[in-house]
Design brief:
The complex is a heterodimer of chains A (about 290) and B (about 400). By secondary structure, chain A is mostly helical. Chain A has helices at about 5-35, 40-60, 65-85, 95-115, 140-165, 165-175, 175-180, 185-210, 220-235, 240-260, 265-280, and strands spanning about 130-135, 135-140. In chain A, α1 crosses α9 (about 220-235), α9 (about 220-235) packs across α10 (about 240-260) and α9 (about 220-235) packs parallel to α11 (about 265-280). Classes of the chains: A mainly alpha (about 290), B alpha/beta (about 400).
Chain lengths: ~290, ~400
């Protein structure tokens, strides 16, 4: 097989992996700060995809343009969910939180089914079939734009946590909740902000994914599972780890498809997960507890 | 206190009860004679990744009702069931409909889901008329209540090769290399097996250079398309579902792979949703599938009824074979004179419908419950419409081959 085929697949896998990484960032942020395992992660992303779809159908907005709008919507929904519901269950056993979020996920899927029906829907864009030709590389324009958007959102998020007072306060809550309470931080408000920010990542990922995947209510479970794999491989709570794991999984799936059999490529992402759990349970970039 | 003797003795009670029972039965018999509705459980994947196809099948069942009524058959009451695109749910949906009173089942489009539904039908002794499902083992189990009016995978594959031979002969162009991309579900695996067994006997002009399998629910098929493109094949032979068919075509455009044509052996490419979503890029795909015969009067009545009930929706394989499954049910009910499952099954086994809608020599089942007379048509997409191009004797318009490149279509 010509070398160009391998180069193209590595590039394509890396771009797809960036989107995997972005989709998992939300899960990582929410777990890293609130210690909540968001079982409704994929469902929230599907809702973001539907929001971007409606923005396209009603106002003709390109999903990339509607990212700020959808992120604002998801932020409000995430903040309200944490402040109104999950904050009441912070101190209860984990399994009660799991059941609550699983119930929310089921309600979201059923709601989407009732409103949008079971059919897959998508957006038709002029550039949907365009590619960039760079030397031997033939890069899908949508994936390139999606990759740039993924890096931008991740960069903005990292900057927020590093250089803003609120971002630092949120990180403090994640690092030591007792210390945060002692210093007078409004922990519940900061938790709600963190959940809102995680939802912003999910919203951005949903808008970007809509360029690549047709949305339908049952898509959610698959993306929740994928996000879990990415976050565990990268390291729970690590933003860099999530992006790195996403790229690793994207490239390994692409190469596995080329070298072995495409239908077996998912096996490699789960294989990576098992290896990480066995030999580096804290994840590639995560810190040992 | 003296005992009062009741005027009702044991004998008069039994006589009275018997008379009541008889008068109670009489309306039932009378209602059947007047055309009591046959309760048909119509089970398809109405949700999940096969939802669009399942809904198209359901439309075919609904479009059959007015046509069957006009033909003088008894009323049919449709009880809808949803497999959620999942074989395990198909089993539960079948059980639920039978418990709710379904006297006959029709379904279930997908081979995996149909296999579990067939087990339920056999266990419960309720006839199942399979509209679409090609995996051979379904009618090889010796089932007494399972009937299939659809070709098995080897029949589809042999038909696919025959249509291609006609295509190459008529166009004067013979490719030298072909690559097969197929889904890895029950249907796709059965088709892959049939390709391996039948291809060597068909004396095709091309060599099959690779078989590439993939998950029908895959999120991304870029690797599959890249691998297929790298083979340098002039023909892509695809065994797909709907969503993956759309993904494959999009990837081909993006990766600028322009073979002489896509030949599909199965669903996906002729569906309305495929053509609507892909626009010009969905044109010229040739699907080699069981189809309706546009010249047959019943096919025309079916199309008319479907267009009246579902304006704008495409009539395709899903429509015609679900329509015919309902026809088989109505015809058997009429001849059986009863909704008794044994009587219905016996009547279905004796089916001999000559005036049907599909491209076949009528509907009749062999000892295994299989109708092997269904032929394969070549259908080509033209601006949102799938037209018969092969066999030439049934062609609705001329074929296009080799097809124009992606850029030339813009």
């Amino acid at each position: 097989m010509p070398i160009e085929v391998y180069l193209n697949q590595i590039a394509s896998g890396a771009l797809t992996g960036l989107i995997y990484g972005l989709s998992a960032l939300g899960l990582s942020v929410i777990f890293g700060v609130c210690k909540i395992v968001n079982f409704a992660h994929g469902e929230m992303m599907v809702i973001a995809m539907y929001a971007a779809l409606l923005a396209f159908q009603w106002f003709g907005l390109d999903p990339l343009v509607s990212i700020p709008l959808v992120c604002a919507l998801l932020f409000a929904a995430g903040y309200a969910l944490q402040a109104g519901l999950i904050n009441r269950l912070i101190d209860v056993p984990d399994h009660m939180q799991f059941i609550l979020l699983a119930a929310i996920a089921i309600a979201m899927v059923s709601g989407c089914l009732m409103i949008f029906g079971p059919n897959a829907q998508n957006v038709q864009l002029d550039y949907a079939y365009d590619s960039y030709e760079i030397g031997p590389l033939l890069l899908d324009k949508v994936r390139v734009l999606a990759g740039i958007a993924a890096i931008s959102v991740a960069g903005l998020l990292a900057a927020f946590f590093r250089w803003t007072w609120i971002g630092k306060a949120i990180c403090a809550c994640g690092d030591n909740i007792v210390g945060a309470r002692v210093t007078g931080l409004n922990v519940k408000h900061l938790f709600a902000l963190a959940f809102g920010l995680g939802s912003v990542c999910i919203g951005a990922a949903g808008c970007i994914l809509l360029l690549l995947v047709d949305v339908q209510p049952f898509l959610a479970v698959e993306y929740t599972l994928l996000a879990f794999v990415v976050v565990i491989v990268g390291g729970l709570g690590s933003l860099t780890g999530a992006l790195l794991a996403g790229v690793l999984i994207g490239v390994s799936e692409a190469l596995a498809g080329l070298f072995i059999q495409p239908s077996l490529k998912s096996m490699f992402s789960f294989g990576l997960l098992i290896l990480v759990l066995l030999f580096r349970p804290q994840g590639l970039v995560g810190k040992r507890a | 206190m003296p005992k009062t003797r009741l005027p009702v003795t044991r004998r008069t009670f039994i006589a009275g009860a018997s008379a009541t029972a008889l008068t109670g039965v009489a309306p039932i018999r009378r209602s059947f004679a007047q055309g009591a509705a046959l309760k048909v459980g119509v089970i398809h994947p109405s949700s999940g990744f096969l939802a669009q196809i399942g809904q198209a099948c359901n439309r075919g069942a609904q479009a059959a009702l007015p046509v069957l009524k006009d033909m003088g058959y008894a009323n049919i009451e449709i009880m809808l069931g949803d497999t959620e695109s999942n074989p395990d749910v198909a089993r539960a949906a079948g059980e639920r409909l039978i418990n709710a009173g379904a006297q006959l089942l029709v379904g279930a489009f997908d081979s995996g889901q149909t296999s579990t539904l067939a087990q339920v039908a056999e266990q419960r002794g309720i006839p199942l008329v399979i509209n679409i499902a090609a995996a051979p083992p379904i009618t090889e189990q010796g089932y007494k209540f399972v009937f299939r009016n659809f070709p098995r995978a080897p029949g589809i594959v042999a038909g696919t090769f025959e249509v291609q031979k006609q295509l190459f002969a008529a166009s004067g162009r013979s490719p030298s290399k072909c690559v097969v991309l197929h889904v890895n579900d029950t249907f796709g695996t059965a088709m892959r097996g049939a390709f391996g067994g039948i291809y060597p006997r068909m004396n095709m002009p091309y060599q099959i250079v690779d078989y590439i399998s993939y998950d029908p629910q895959a999120r991304d098929l870029s690797v599959e398309v890249a691998k297929a493109k790298a083979t340098g094949a002039e023909i892509l032979l695809a065994v797909s579902r709907l969503n993956d068919a759309m993904l494959l075509t999009r990837e081909m455009v993006k990766q600028r792979w322009e073979p002489w044509g896509i030949v599909a052996a199965g669903p996906g490419y002729y569906e309305g949703a495929y053509m609507k979503t892909l626009g010009k890029n969905g044109n010229f795909v040739i699907s080699t599938v069981p189809w309706y015969d546009p010249r047959k009067p019943l096919a025309q009545r079916m199309i008319e009824a479907h267009q009246k009930m579902f304006p704008g929706q495409v009539v395709d394989t899903n429509t015609v074979f679900t329509f015919e499954a309902m026809l088989v049910a109505a015809d058997a009910y009429k001849r059986a004179g009863s909704a008794n499952p044994q009587a219905l099954a016996a009547a279905i086994r004796a089916t001999d419908i000559k005036d049907n809608a599909a491209l076949s020599d009528g509907i009749k089942f062999d000892a295994k419950g299989q109708n092997d007379t269904v032929r394969i048509a070549g259908i080509q997409n033209f601006d949102g419409d799938a037209k018969v191009v092969f066999p030439l004797s049934s062609a609705e318009r001329n074929f296009v081959f080799p097809v124009p490149g992606w850029q030339a279509r813009r």
